[in-house]
Design brief:
It comes from Desulforhopalus singaporensis. Homodimer. Keywords: Aminoacyl-tRNA synthetase, ATP-binding, Cytoplasm, Ligase, Nucleotide-binding, Protein biosynthesis. This protein is α+β, with helices and mostly antiparallel strands. It has 2 domains: 5-105, OB fold (Dihydrolipoamide Acetyltransferase, E2P), CATH 2.40.50; 124-440, 2-Layer Sandwich (BirA Bifunctional Protein, domain 2). It has helices spanning 5-11, 114-119, 128-150, 199-209, 245-266, 268-278, 282-291, 299-308, 325-335, 386-395, 404-411, 424-432; strands spanning 17-29, 33-39, 47-52, 70-79, 87-98, 154-155, 161-162, 174-175, 192-194, 211-219, 232-241, 295-298, 340-346, 362-370, 374-381, 417-423. The strands form 3 sheets. The chain has an 8-stranded mixed β-sheet with strand order 6-10-11-16-15-14-13-12. It has a 5-stranded mixed β-barrel with strand order 1-2-3-5-4. Strand 1 and strand 2 form a beta hairpin. The relative contact order is 0.11. The mean pLDDT is 95. The structure holds 4-amino-1,4-dioxobutan-2-aminium adenosine-5'-monophosphate (4AD) and magnesium ion (MG). Magnesium ion binds next to strand 15. Magnesium ion binds at residues 367, 375, 378.
Length: 452
């Protein structure tokens, strides 16, 4: 049985015989030896293998072992005399499982730009930075489940194919059987699309099971080429019955702090890499986020603060207009220098399902803005009054008959309830300091993305 390099470096079982399987990062030859660095993806660090010229395939194979080749190494772990590593593997046998042509292998021993790596999407997880992002992303997903399961939330698998355009923004990709010409309309006789959010279905389960969450891929057919938008992204959406906007905001803050603390503790080696090469001071910044209370202001206050900031924005600030990302970043990055929860937005710029406030003009909406990213969370308390919901639907051009099932939730045992959506890639960006969202999802789907 192979042992993972992470375990070898953690336990440092000097004297033990082990087999390690991985990919060659570098090879260096001296008189009678080769030093081979191998990586198996389990951690950032490579394991140094010492191959003696006495090995039977040394002359013809090992001495020509190219970067990118896959190997299984049997050997004995010894204390390393070199700086920066505790143990090294003295090989008794090296099997070359798959060779590589060093002339054509695209990953050379130098730093490649992220733009270049996007063109070789299928090889980029073999680099230090993208490997580290993958481990951090995996850990964050695990921590999400821990957080909610520890608090008694039930996970619901909401559908990918749906007829409801939750956000009402006309950004639903259409699903088709490909047989429309024979009389079928898109999806077996009706039109359907890929979900933009699992919220409406999460509400169904919250109104039966209390606290629930859904976590999966969502899709938006927005043709925007920015460092924070994808056509396919993952969203975490908790939905809580018997919960108002304040309760919603508190859970969102607790969740973000929990996730940051978890990654700082469990991905320390990868986080140190980001802190050193991607965003200087990242770890300290995340520790500050954990230590301090988030700021809470209303949309109206936010607009006043932005107006006071003068005319430094490309887009003018005006009550009734949505906040642009430059405004969001000004609030969280410059003015408060910490995460900011902005609540109670004008009803006219928000979807039909948000609860209308007593002023009749604003809704119980909540966005959480973080430095470097802007909006990371969007949520609200939901409209739980049947008549108000029906008239909000009509106002926003939605046919209530299409959402009769959703209205039933208000007809039978309606309760105040609230929830939010955390953009998972924006979270990974925030945690790793990666400037572009294309670096934090394994296979980015954007206009013009690489095929793979
Ligand atoms: O603000 P949004 O559109 O809210 C909803 O979809 C609600 N139905 C969620 C809910 O209340 N259950 O999206 C939520 C979050 C945003 O704050 C952002 O982090 C992320 O999803 N997001 C995107 N991430 C990447 N690419 C895109 N195109 C995104 N659109 C939204
Ligand atoms: Mg939003």
């Amino acid at each position: 049985m192979d042992i993972r390099i992470k375990k070898v470096l953690q336990d440092q079982p000097v004297g033990q015989r082990v087999a390690v399987a991985g990919w060659v990062r570098t090879r260096r030859d001296t008189g009678g030896f080769s030093f081979i660095e191998i990586n198996d993806g389990s951690c950032l660090a490579n394991l140094q293998v010492i191959a003696d010229k006495g090995l039977e395939n040394y002359q013809q194979d090992i001495k020509n072992l190219a970067t990118g080749s896959s190997v299984v190494v049997d050997g004995e772990l010894r204390k390393s005399p070199a700086k920066g590593q505790a143990v090294e593997l003295h090989a008794t046998k090296i099997d070359i499982v798959g060779g590589a042509d060093s002339e054509t292998y695209p990953l050379q021993k130098k730093r490649h730009s992220f733009e270049f790596l996007r063109e070789i999407n299928h090889l980029r997880p073999r680099t230090n930075a993208l490997g580290a992002v993958s481990r951090v992303r995996s850990r964050l997903g695990y921590a999400v489940h821990n957080f909610f399961q520890q608090r008694g939330f039930i996970q619901v698998h909401t559908p990918i194919i749906t007829t409801s355009d939750c956000e009402g923004a006309g950004e639903m990709f259409q699903v088709s059987t490909g047989r429309e010409r024979s009389g079928e309309d898109h999806f077996f006789g009706r039109s359907a699309g890929l979900t933009v959010s699992g919220q409406l279905q999460a509400e169904v389960y919250a109104l039966a099971m209390g606290d629930v969450y859904t976590f999966g891929p969502t899709f938006r057919a927005e043709n925007s080429n920015t460092s924070r938008h994808l056509a396919e992204f993952w969203m975490l959406e908790p939905e809580m019955a018997f919960c108002d906007l304040d309760g919603n905001r508190k859970i969102a803050e607790e969740l973000l702090k929990y996730l940051l603390a978890d990654v700082l503790e469990n991905c320390a080696e990868d986080m140190a890499l980001f802190d050193k090469f991607i965003e200087k001071g990242l770890i300290g910044k995340l520790q500050d986020v954990i230590a301090k209370d988030f700021i809470h202001i209303s949309y109206t206050e936010a607009v006043e603060r932005l107006e006071k900031a003068g005319d430094k924005f490309e887009y003018a600030v005006r009550w009734g207009a949505d906040l642009q990302s430059e405004h969001e970043r000004y609030l969280s990055e410059k003015l408060f220098r910490c995460p900011v929860a902005v609540t109670d937005y004008p009803a006219s710029i928000k979807p039909f399902y948000m609860r209308l406030n007593d002023d009749g003009k604003t809704v119980a909406a909540m966005d959480i803005l973080v430095p470097g990213i802007g909006e990371i969370i969007g949520g609200s308390q939901r409209e739980d009054r049947l008549e108000v919901l029906q008239s909000r639907m009509i106002e926003t051009g939605i046919d209530p008959a299409e959402y009769d099932w959703y209205l039933d939730l208000r007809r039978y045992g309606s309760v105040p309830h609230a929830g939010f959506g955390l953009g998972f890639e924006r979270l990974v960006q925030f945690v790793t300091g990666m400037a572009n969202i294309r670096e934090v999802i394994p296979f980015p789907r954007t206009p013009g993305s690489a095929p793979c």
